[in-house]
Amino acid sequence: MAFTVAIDGPAAAGKGTLSKALAAHLGFAHLDTGLLYRAVGAKLLLGVEPLEAAETLTAEDLAADNLRTAEVADAASKVAVIPEVRAALVDFQRAFARRDGGAVLDGRDIGTVICPEAEAKLFVTASPEVRAERRWLELRARDPKVAFDAVLADVRERDERDMNRASAPLKPAEDAVMLDTSDLGIEAALKAAIEIVEARM
Ligand code: C5P
């Protein structure tokens, strides 16, 4: 039986951690769709044409270990504005969503474009400052010199690009349940998400 949980929201709202924990709780498969755009962005930085990169993505590309860097995130949000790149990634995401046993997909357009028929939809948000702080703590573990202000500027710039692009902009689906994690720890956010999903099962 297929059951799709669509989780959308801006960068560093806690979607990733929440989606992974929710999938584990439900026994569902999990796809972080940002990785697809990051893998295409990483290829762009190597000089590969984005559409070609999107059409030929391999499991190995998705496992590359530079995908979490700020440079690749920036390249990802640039390739993500290209409609042909987005289109090339649709079938893979839809097939994943409808697999037997249930799936949690997190991204920007899962509830609106990829899986408008998803059984459960969440839109996870947090204030830009809270999101920047989370991202900063994460990045600082790898690079102690990274400045908070630079991370905040980056979060705002990426929000701007994600919300204002013509193709599949970041916005809540009409039937999405909003979950603001600004004042919620992961345990509380997970509990809220489980309640929302189980009410639809
Ligand atoms: O979620 P993450 O930060 O890994 O996503 C990287 C970039 O990929 C985002 O800034 C966004 O531009 C793009 N993206 C997207 N649609 C998705 C997931 C990510 O456009 N479903």
TrEMBL record:
It holds the Pfam family Cytidylate_kin. Coiled coil: none annotated. Keywords: ATP-binding, Cytoplasm, Kinase, Nucleotide-binding, Transferase. GO terms for biological process: nucleobase-containing small molecule interconversion; pyrimidine nucleotide metabolic process. Residues 5-197 form the Cytidylate kinase domain. ATP binds at residues 9-17. GO terms for cellular component: cytosol. GO terms for molecular function: ATP binding; dCMP kinase activity. SUPFAM superfamilies: P-loop containing nucleoside triphosphate hydrolases. It is found in: Cytoplasm. Its EC number is 2.7.4.25. It is an enzyme of class 2 (transferase). CDD domains: CMPK. It catalyses: CMP + ATP = CDP + ADP; dCMP + ATP = dCDP + ADP. Transmembrane segments: none annotated. InterPro entries: Cytidylate_kin, Cytidylate_kinase_dom, P-loop_NTPase. The keyword Kinase applies. Belongs to the cytidylate kinase family. Type 1 subfamily. This is Cytidylate kinase. The lineage of its organism: Bacteria, Pseudomonadati, Pseudomonadota, Alphaproteobacteria, Rhodobacterales.
